[in-house]
Amino acid sequence: EYVVFNGEIIERSQAKIDVEDRGYQFGDGVYEVIRVYNGKMFTANEHLERLVSSAEKIGMKLGWSIGELESLFATLIEKNGLGTGIVYMQVTRGASPRNHAFPPAGVAQTLVAYTRDMKRPVNNFANGVKTILAEDIRWLRCDIKSLNLLGNILAKQKAAEAGCYEAILHRGEKITEGSSSNIFIIKDGAVITHPANNYILNGITRQTLEKICAASGIPFIEKEFTVADLLGADEIAVGSTTSEITPVVEVDGKHVGDGAPGHVTKKLQSLFDQEIE
Ligand code: PDD
Fold first, then answer.
1. Which of 130, 145, 174, 254 is catalytic?
2. Which ipTM value was assigned to this complex?
3. For residue 251, what are the domain limits?
């Protein structure tokens, strides 16, 4: 099995990270997860542009161009013989004696990437998933795809302990997003989701969904909505690179709609399928 390590493709066992890498010490870096269907990356350019933009937002200018990254990952996928799965990549501010302030100029960033086999979660697509509500305790720059994921991890663990797939986060009364996904509610035929600001990650799946809705005349409304709106929704869906469009059938033990995936969600799923093929 091969990995990308800085500019090269090497055996995973040969990759070594310094104990003072800032990613390891501070979570000082950014990451992306790109879906791979039949050996090909899906919406790679959108993900890589977001990687560049996340890096810029934390004062890092990536040491690799989008073109270089795309060709490195394409080679990695081929060398690992990946069919359907993901490429995970992260870039940190590099290794340097521990100091909160940025390291001196000239310290090289650390880039790693690996692939993983991952089937499309077709059972979840068909049956829907259960969720819980959890207070959103994260920082105020959730638009950055940062390696710091403690708030997300603690919420996801709460969901896992409740036998649920996802934690739907809320800041007070306002729903923001999932612990590792965006949240969509469907009311009277319209898709409603939190605006793309500092409170959420603007998901690539969310952006794909926005395009799909525009092309098929389904209203896609970006506005704040409350816990009460969520609980009163006709349908709920979670969206992410790995989850695609997954119906939510339960929130905190209460059925969404009639407790089965709804027809607008099904329509969105089939339109999403067409994007992949
Ligand atoms: N998570 N919001 C959060 C907090 C996320 O972590 C993710 C993705 C999304 C959806 O983004 P996208 O559609 O671009 O995948 C929204 C990835 C998959 C992860 O951390 O594994």
1. 145
2. 0.98
3. 122-276
